[in-house]
Specification:
homodimer, 22 helices, mainly alpha, three-stranded mixed sheet, globular, Tetracycline Repressor, domain 2, MgtE N-terminal fold, 3 domains, CBS-domain
């Protein structure tokens, strides 16, 4: 199936929604993958999406609901009663159900949980809701296939046939002892090609990787990526097997983290751009703009101190953009490198001082090249050696400061468990603007004015 | 197994490497996961890494080689002969082998291919090398399990036992017709619980998702993410089954693309920071700094035109940083939004004009808020209404320009198949600096000077 969502398809569907041509809608929608239907629900207007959703049969509706993006799901569910939501949730895996419930307002959450008919399902969900959304427990699935290590292959095969009913996809068998403590894994391949009377104990693989339920989900995702794991078992502090995390959830975590870092570096605080509300979009960007505004006003103060000197030597003003641009770029480069190294866990073995020293050398090297070009240009066009010298010396100083500051700040934030990505983008450029101006004018006072 | 790479472990290992204490080294390294060994090789110095690598047994050495980061692998392999490299490659999956060979200099590539003893392996690799590295064919694996749809379950079981030997992990069975054309998939679960005489034809799942070998690997990865696929079959234009892509490869693609966008936005052109060479690190950053330098010099020209007016009204110079900061931030925000929407494929159904109009409204709204604050501040502190008006009007104009330009440029680049991320970071801020200064001083001429 190679379904392409075309503009034509969408337009026909919207016409059908407008004329409430239910026959056409159902026929067009039913063969699609739930992920495609979810995408369609995000494209059409909210009331149309809600109308369309109610035409889906229960099974499909619940699959689609899982696929709708978190940001839009809350809004989407507003028009549904707790009972209607509970009906859809009844059919979901416990981990997906938990995600959906957690996006609801708190009072609705309780109503939905109470409206669930399957008590085991409801208690699974309540258990999962206790975990932090950003922990392994928060993204794990409680459906998995496990075998007692005292079973024979034959007994295991019987027992697994029962378990397998509830599990979407079996990747591997988890081996536990009689207290449900995780012992290791058994591959399906090995299991299927071993004679009936062999004990599980004798064929499973010890020393398998597992993760703790309260481990940070990003760290779990990085582990899965590093060790190429498709699925990883989750245990509690006593090594009791609780669930499993599949790589599609890990992929979501990795993607979200990368997007968050990118947004921070670009001065956007939330992922709200799918929203059509001008106010919501503006709100996500305004805080960073206000940081820039305050920076600009402080910059005006700094230059204000030298207003008298500028009257005499207005040429100094012409190089302000050069100083600011270079300081900003160097700072962003250094901080981005650190943020990315931290995200990839590749910084553990280098001390802060070694890192700072390396950045210092790079800053001096690049600074020297850029400063030389600027100095020569300035000397030739303005025939003013002291002006040229001021520009050159200032650039080297700004490079050095910006490189070190851009390296230092994210490292320090990280040390105190604050997201280092905060230090990138508008924050670093604004700070560098102010300090850069001070450096430039103070060197100007010393060498030129 | 929960191995944590500690500083202590590394230090002990480095001492052992220095004293060539092979016994200690082998004992410390052998129990580790290949990915951990690869990480260690990247931490220690190159000659030590090469020494350590030669102590590994063949099987482990080949697994480690796959895990070493691409950037360091070429350098790492320099000291090995084509025969030694071929020995490691002999044991790899064809797709991994292809990755390793493609990182080698071209003359070495041929030598290694000739040195391979297993001819089928060598021809698989040559076939894979024909595909673009960024295509589905370039990341696919040629080992998979397939069944003819005319087979019974019993026959299939026999045949699959033979195939399964070569396949690391079986996720699903691919069903083909007698011409090896892809027909659909058959889940292991279904296969194992169906009676022996049933025809594969009667139990497989039609309409399964497959991808074309020449499809862009990023688009494949996004598909796998969207449809939560752990593995996807790859076919040629005639629907002949060629291979499969597993989600760990898709994850690598998604991560690399996100990192590339982040680096572009931050003004770093390559991922070279694991390198210790000052020159290599500087080279990755210098091009973007030179863009900033040229921008700064052009900015100096622009302000130079107004030098005479600045002498009279030096206060105009004090607000240069404010104008530049705001133009830069707005431009980066707008372009980042577009780049991210394009990366996530969420822009297909909105026309360029609708998008530009939305950005225009956001720019005007945020611009009006920031301009009002700046105007009031300036009026109060400088008691100069015309100056305040100049700042306010300039800010609204700069917001509008920067928002539209930041939206427009990546959209245009994307239309002409150029990576839209090029338009972010230093490029957009530099352009906005120059235009922003022009806008500011021209409005200054009209309202103030």
């Amino acid at each position: 199936m190679q379904f392409e969502l075309t503009k034509e398809f969408i337009n026909n569907l919207i016409s059908a929604l407008e004329s409430e041509d239910n026959g056409y809608i159902v026929e067009a929608i039913n063969p699609l993958h739930p992920a495609d239907i979810a995408e369609i629900l995000e494209i059409v207007d909210l009331p149309q999406a809600q109308y369309l959703y109610q035409l889906l049969d229960e099974e499909l509706a619940s699959e689609v609901l899982v696929e709708i993006e978190e940001d839009t799901r809350e809004q989407f569910l507003e028009s549904f009663s707790a009972e209607e939501i509970a009906e859809s949730i009844e059919k979901m895996d416990a981990d997906d159900a938990t995600d959906v419930i957690q996006d609801l307002p708190e009072d609705v959450q309780e109503e939905v949980l109470e409206a669930l008919k399957d008590e085991e399902h409801s208690s699974d969900i309540s258990m999962l809701m206790n975990y932090d959304e950003d922990s392994a427990g928060g993204i794990m699935d409680v459906d998995f296939v496990s075998a007692d290590w005292n079973w024979t292959v034959k007994i295991a095969l019987q027992k697994l046939r029962e378990q397998v009913e509830n599990v979407d996809q079996v990747y591997t068998i988890y081996v536990v002892d009689s207290f449900n403590k995780f012992k290791g894994i058994l591959s399906l391949k090995r299991f299927l090609y071993t004679s009936d009377e062999t004990l599980i104990k004798d064929i499973y693989k010890k020393d398998s990787i597992s993760v703790l339920a309260n481990e940070d989900s990003e760290s779990v995702a990085l582990k899965m990526e590093k060790y190429d794991l498709v699925v990883v078992p989750v245990v509690d502090e006593n090594n009791k097997l609780l669930g499993r995390i599949t790589i599609d959830d890990a992929l979501d975590v990795i993607k979200e983290e990368a997007e968050k870092d990118y947004q921070m570096a670009s001065g956007i605080s939330e992922k709200v751009e799918s929203s059509d509300s001008l106010f919501v979009i503006s709100r996500a960007r305004l805080p960073w703009l206000l940081i820039g505004l305050i920076g600009g006003i402080l910059g005006a103060y700094v230059i204000g101190f030298f207003e008298y000197q500028l009257k005499e030597n207005a040429v100094m003003a012409t190089f302000i953009p050069l100083i600011l641009a270079m300081g900003g770029n160097v700072g962003v480069q250094s901080s981005a490198i650190i943020v990315q190294s931290l995200a990839n866990n590749t910084l553990n073995y280098e001390s802060i001082f070694k890192k700072l020293f390396k950045e210092l050398l790079v800053a001096l090297f690049n600074g020297f090249i850029c400063a030389s070009i600027a100095l020569i240009f300035c000397w030739i066009t303005r025939s003013d050696f002291y002006l040229a010298l001021t520009i050159g010396v200032s650039l080297v100083a700004v490079f050095t400061y910006a490189g070190l500051f851009g390296t230092f700040v994210p490292l320090i934030l990280n040390k105190y468990k604050i997201d280092p990505a905060l230090a990138t983008g508008p924050f670093i450029t604004t700070t560098n603007d102010i300090i850069g101006l001070l450096i430039y004018f103070l060197i100007g006072m010393a060498l030129y004015f």
